[in-house]
Design a protein that fits this description.
With about 325 residues, the protein is an alpha/beta fold. The protein is built from 15 helices and eleven strands. Helix content is about 45%, strand content about 20%.
Amino acid sequence: MTILKKGMTRRQYLGATGAGMLAAGFGVRPSMADMATVRQGYQTNMWGMPTYYLLRSGLLQKHGIKFEEFAVPSGNLTMQQMVARQVDMGTYAGPSFIIGNQKGGLVAIAKIEYVGKTARVMARKDLGLKTVADLRGKKVANQTGSSTGNIFVDQIATSAGLHKGDYQEIRMNVNDMVAALAAKTVDAMVNVEPYNSIAEAEGLANTLVDYYKFDKLPVFMAAIPEFVEKNPDTIVAYLKAWLEVEKDFKNHPDKVADVIYSFYTSKGYKMSKDTFTKALSRVEVGPGWPSDLKPYMQHHAEVLLKNKKIKAIPDWSKAFREDFLKKASA
């Protein structure tokens, strides 16, 4: 038989004891005031657009998270900002993450998406080039230091028999490459969506190779270790928002496309909604930790080590924080 404290109704007693159980750790949920503000970095090519959608969707606010946003042309620049501790979180592919882990101890909290279908090597249409091997002696626009840039130089070009010096690498941001093709100051570009679809739609370039044949290109959400250690509840809530972003991409693609399309039109890009939708469809959003990630990343780390871009292979048990997504999914 339950004995009520003097002056308490049964409802008041149950409410008080329930609060006590929550405070003791039974299903406690952090309040909005407990959440840290996230300094979110993202790239303005298609790889960063799921993150842009996250910031515009209201889902972070729903989970009590405030944010500041830092947009740059490509993920390797976000990685550099994180190494300098100017940004807390950001997305980029495996090679950039490995370099960031080496330089700044960055950790991954989830694989967010696959973008291998968004990356291509394209050549000016008027040149009639058909294969990567045809780039010998040509000017190739490349975002040097980016994941796509590293994969092109270290894997795609070499598999076609091309090494540094066999072609002229022109350092350039991805968002400037289509204009360079139009001006004929470069012969080819290593680029991502939506710029590839824009060049194709305008009749400027044809595809020499799709990255998906070489690499599915998983993109990670990385974080600086200090933020992760100080704000575990924020990380879990943040990933809960990402799981809802995944549902929107799968169940409400038109809604997602409208938000992201408005970003590019606001920046002055002129492309049809059909061209844009086709480009966006090449992004596969799905937070997770696939079983093949560690062997994949080990391979990329070995390539970077061989090319002296890192000094050691990361310890994946420390570089990958899989526990947060498990809690968010639960």
